[in-house]
Amino acid sequence: MNNHVSIEDVPLNGFHQLLSIRSGGGWVLDGYVLSIIGVAMVQLSTALDMTSFWQGMVAASALIGIFFGGFLGGLLTGSLGRRKLYFVGPAIFVICSVAQYWADSGAALFFFRFLIGIGVGFEYPVAGSLLVEFMPRKYRGPRLAMLTILWFAGAAAAYVVGNALLDSGRPDAWRLVLASPAVIGVVLLLIRIGTPESPRWLLSKGRAAEAERIIKKVYGPTFSLKNMPEQPTEKKVSLLDLLHSGYGKRMLFVAVFWSCSVIPVFAVYAFAPTVLQALNLKGEWASLGSVIITMLFVVGCIIATRLINVIGRRSMLIHSFLWSGLALLGLGMFSNGSEVLVLMLFGAYAVFIGGAQVLQLVYPNELFPTEIRSAAVGLGASLSRVGAAIGTWLVPISLQSIGVGHTMFAAAGVTLVGLLVALAIAPETRALSLQEAASLR
């Protein structure tokens, strides 16, 4: 009955919706666990008598962990499967978040948050690969893009819950703040129970019978391996294989565009009040501006999610870098402008960069075949976080040494690099099956 219907063209069913929640919950938790340290930092710095060195190390620890976690998670997901690694990230979040409650030094916090970063690094290749390998092509882009929105939702929740706990007046409130992600982690572990392995990964390991059973369970008894547009064969792939198998150019594209899209965002998002004050927004203007910018990042991602299947991946990336870069250029040129002008330019950047933000998860998952997909996503996540860590670390130094105007020009320069790379080699994968999108044709 369904001999000619590809699983890439089926309508969404209950399994797809549940898988979206299972994978999306990981991004909510990622946004929460990475942002919660900023809420607790002032109180914990005083309580633990932390030096500025350890404050900086604790703030950067998770980003360092993501670098290693992305590499490791990508390689292990390719060899051990998606399902087994699906529980590693949430388990690390639960254990280390609870352990932070008893941390008695900056070094201890650095260690636990470094491990949390490794867990976040695992989520990128594991949850993303599992979601994309089940999702029909029509919904693949929007569902992957949705994960970015959920990250910001988790970050917003961290500020709401964290500040509520701090306002309780308990002397150990910061400890409760740092332990709070464990609650979300336990819920995520529970809802991920029962998730099946990816049939595409099983076929890549020669386990056709298992793949067939899962296809029938997910799509119905009339579906079989014949309904899969791609039937990968067993193949061992190393990191060097990835770079020399003809996908090196795509890996370069992913690493560069991902880095160029996160470096200014992490810097702006982490230091929004400081940057706004340097742009002469004081008092209520600075507080209001920080809230508005955070909201507009979410708005930009939502708009991009709605448009991703309308204007296509390549066009969205080019326009995102172009218009967000012009907004940063305007901030550099008018760094002494009025409060309204500065907020308008900052807001324009937050909205327009949404396209590049949501494509961070779409492109890497679409451009590589099953055998190397998780390794490529993990590598992209790792390399982009190196840039993010450096960019975040440089912002206060740059503001002091060359001023806010030139700092904005530097951010615009990073965005320009992303635009040039997008113009030169960004492919279009809209409306393609996963096999077609990953093919080197």
From TrEMBL:
The keyword Transmembrane helix applies. Its main location: membrane. PROSITE patterns: MFS (PS50850), SUGAR_TRANSPORT_2 (PS00217). Keywords: Membrane, Transmembrane, Transmembrane helix, Transport. The keyword Transmembrane helix applies. It comes from the Bacteria. It is a multi-pass membrane protein. It is found in: Membrane. The chain crosses the membrane at residues 27-47, 53-73, 85-103, 109-132, 144-161, 173-191, 252-272, 284-304, 316-334, 340-363, 375-395, 407-426. Residues 19-430 form the Major facilitator superfamily (MFS) profile domain. Belongs to the major facilitator superfamily. Sugar transporter (TC 2.A.1.1) family. PANTHER family: SYNAPTIC VESICLE GLYCOPROTEIN 2 (PTHR23511:SF34). This is Inner membrane metabolite transport protein YgcS. It comes from Cupriavidus numazuensis. The lineage of its organism: Bacteria, Pseudomonadati, Pseudomonadota, Betaproteobacteria, Burkholderiales. The gene is ygcS.
